[in-house]
Amino acid sequence: MSHPTHDMKGGALAPDHLIKMANQIGSFFETMPDRAQALVDIGSHIKRYWEPRMRRSLLQYVDQQDGVELKDIVLEALRVHREAVL
Known about the structure:
By secondary structure, this protein is mainly α. The protein has helices at 15-29, 35-49, 52-65, 72-80, 82-85.
C-alpha cells in the first residue's frame, strides 16, 4: 500500500497534504506586522524544513493549478521567492 501523499506517476507527491502544511505555515506568518518579512520567512521555512521533492511538488502544483487552494500569502511568497525556495 502506498503512502497517500505519493502519486503513482513518477513519484511526485500529491499536493493535498503539502497544501495543508503550506497553509498552516502561512497562517502562522500572516500574523506578522511586516508582510514583506513574512513572505521571506515563509519561503525560508519551506526551504529549511521541506525536502527538495516536497518543494518541487508544491511549486509544480502552483505552476499547473495556479495554487488555487493556497492562502494568498503562501502563493505570493512562493511566487516572489521561488528561486530561494528551490
